[in-house]
Design a protein that fits this description.
This protein has 614 residues and is α/β, with parallel strands linked by helices. Helix content is 35%, strand content 14%. The chain contains 22 helices and 24 strands. One of its GO terms (molecular function) is N,N-dimethylaniline monooxygenase activity. Its main location: endoplasmic reticulum.
Length: 614
């Protein structure tokens, strides 16, 4: 099926930013032998990354997609389709566009920072068109089974049986398989944990079935579970319902998409230095984050305070929940104890009567029904996979599970990095350690994850986001050399080290290096600012003078140590220094954003000092 009109129109209107060098269309690497054929199961964000990475390494991908379009989770459907992920019309991406992008394809500058699901799908269509991925996808084709060939120990090949929309089955032989089916397709509805549910006189359903608030008008609604879906549905439903009750067992930390100075929260808090603090001083970092969140909204006062620290579990991202609570439209309640007819009894003994609807936002089960049971062994609550990718028991490392993971950040950079490594293994460019070593690594990682995070059967996939990316990047050979960057290109080095960990950092060097990566990093704040420029507002520079004086003083001290002979010339022209700062490389950004880029200002300040008087 051709790309839908929405994607075609978007691609005509939006091209990669002019100031970012777009990578060339993919061409397969020429090899003396026939390229390996790789089956990619699913064309969501992970599957698309796998297709592109296969082509990068000279492999021949064939992607099987059971639906009629790309997008996976982000392809909205008016009616839920069994076996597929489902989203509601109001869904907004939690991650900002610069943090969720593919590493060599920045989103259009005029796209909003936190995109509506329809714009996420547009971005996928742009990616597919730019790299010519569509020809490698077979739509309306489901995978029935994936089995090792009889000579697998020697060939590493797989038998893949598919079925098209008409019911015709086909047998294929592939040299490798990449599984990209996600983990939001099988709703978990634990009715046995809710005594009396069979007596409930109202309507109940899983959040997977939720579409919109229509049908909740004037009704009393209980939402069970306070994950991202539960929070969204409580807020959405409260706009029309008589009353919404949000039930939570353990509470949750709630963060907004909007951070300091109105900038995307994940960009402000996604720096590598923050990760170092979290890794080596976790208790202190959790305390600081809790203090910051509670200064904005006291979680204890609002009945949301969880028993775990901030880093133990992925927080709820919601911009409106506190407003609904303070207005009384949403009432926070403890865990549900039982149902009694039209009443819901909570663990604190309180009762809500005449409940019309119960929505269970209770997570998802995960399974890969087409894989052999031998490949679905578990380590703790998670699948036993080396680096969350490779089953260690295979004699040939020719199967990879991609995107079956979560962290405090977007899935796209995680899945893309997994795909980059897996395809290099398939191409014979890198090798995995022996099975014994992989099992020991899995055991250690599982133990550490259970210590670090509140893992459970419903939440088994959590990893340290940047730490995991860096670990895989080290395997691929694309982890940034921070010291080298600081010495060769100080501005870029400071942006990488102190700025947000955007995916472009992993295209600066090594296999798959992209010539546009540097420019993409240095212009990322301009793309952040672009969607806000819908009304020109005069800037008042005087308000930032104290900050610049403070920064200048610190830089002045540094310069004094470096060269006392230049201080006199500098002090004779302080106005020139401030003008230099105000017209620095980030001159096109709002002053509030310049303030956030303090490391860039320091660099320009020191640069000014060291070059004055020459």
């Amino acid at each position: 099926m051709l790309v839908k009109a929405l994607g075609r129109e978007a691609s005509e209107r939006h091209n990669p930013p002019d100031d970012v060098l777009a990578p060339p269309l993919i061409k397969g690497v020429h090899r003396d032998t026939m390229a390996h054929r790789v089956a990619v199961i699913g064309s969501g964000c992970s599957g698309l990354a796998c297709i592109k990475c296969c082509l990068d390494e000279g492999l021949q991908p064939v992607c099987f997609e059971s639906s009629d379009d790309i997008g996976g989770l982000w392809r909205y459907k008016e009616k839920p389709e069994p076996g597929r992920a489902n989203i509601y019309p109001s869904l907004i991406m939690n991650s900002s566009k610069e943090m969720l992008s593919y590493s060599d394809f920045p989103p259009p500058a005029d796209f909003p920072n936190n995109m509506h699901h329809s714009q996420v799908l547009q971005y996928y269509h742009l990616y597919v068109e730019h790299f010519g991925l569509l020809q490698h996808i077979r739509f309306q084709t489901s995978v029935c089974s994936v089995k090792q060939m009889p000579d697998f120990s020697h060939s590493g090949q797989w038998e893949v049986v598919t079925e098209n929309k008409g019911g015709d089955k086909e047998r294929h032989i592939f040299d490798a398989v990449m599984v990209c089916t996600g983990h939001f397709t099988q709703p978990h509805l634990p009715l046995k944990d809710f005594p009396g549910i069979d007596t409930f006189t109202g309507q109940y359903f899983h959040s997977w079935e939720y579409n919109c608030a229509q049908g909740l008008q004037g009704k009393r609604v209980v939402v069970v579970g306070i994950g991202n879906s539960g929070g969204d549905i409580a807020v959405d439903g409260s706009s029309v319902a008589e009353q919404v009750y949000l039930s939570t067992r353990r509470g949750a930390w709630v963060v907004s998409r909007v951070g300091d100075n109105g900038l995307p929260c994940d960009l402000i808090n996604g720096a590598r230095l923050a990760v170092l603090l979290q890794r080596y001083l976790p208790s202190w970092a959790d305390y600081i984050m809790a203090q910051k969140l509670n200064q904005r909204f006291n979680h204890r006062l609002y009945g949301l305070l969880p028993s775990h620290g901030f880093s133990k579990q992925i927080p709820v991202v919601n911009d409106y929940l506190f407003g609904r609570i303070i207005s009384g439209r949403v009432v926070v309640k403890p865990n549900v104890k039982e149902f009694r007819g039209s009443s819901v009894v909570f663990e604190d003994g309180s009762v809500v009567e005449e409940v019309d609807v119960a929505v269970f936002a209770t997570g998802y089960n995960y399974d890969f029904p087409f894989l052999p049971s031998s490949l679905k062994a578990k380590a703790g609550f998670r699948l036993s996979l080396y680096k969350e990718i490779f089953p260690p028991s295979l004699e040939q490392s020719t199967l990879a599970v991609i995107g079956f993971i979560s962290g405090l950040g977007s899935i796209i950079p995680l899945a893309e990095m997994q795909a980059r490594w897996a395809t290099r293994v398939f191409a014979g460019l890198q090798k995995l350690p022996p099975e014994k070593c992989m099992l020991l690594d899995i055991e250690r990682d599982t133990r550490e994850m259970h210590q670090r995070f509140a893992c459970s059967e419903r939440n088994p996939l959590h990893v340290d986001y940047i730490t995991y990316l860096d670990d895989l990047a080290q395997q691929v050979g694309v982890r940034p050399n921070f010291l080298g960057l600081l010495l060769r290109d100080p501005r870029l080095g400071l942006s990488v080290l102190l700025g947000p960990c955007t995916p472009y950092q992993y295209r600066l060097c090594g296999p798959g290096q992209w010539a546009g990566a540097r420019q993409a990093i240095l212009t990322q704040w301009e793309r952040v600012a672009r969607p806000f420029k819908t009304r020109t507002v005069p800037e008042h520079r005087s308000s930032t003078l104290p900050l610049f004086l403070t920064v200048s003083s610190a830089a002045l001290l540094f310069a004094a140590i470096y060269s006392q002979s230049k201080i006199t010339a500098i002090l004779q022209d302080p106005e020139g220094l401030l003008n230099r700062l105000l017209n620095s490389r980030v001159v096109d950004l709002p002053l509030s954003m310049k303030t956030g880029l303090w490391f860039d200002i320091i660099f320009d300040t020191v640069h000014y000092f060291l070059n004055t008087g020459r």
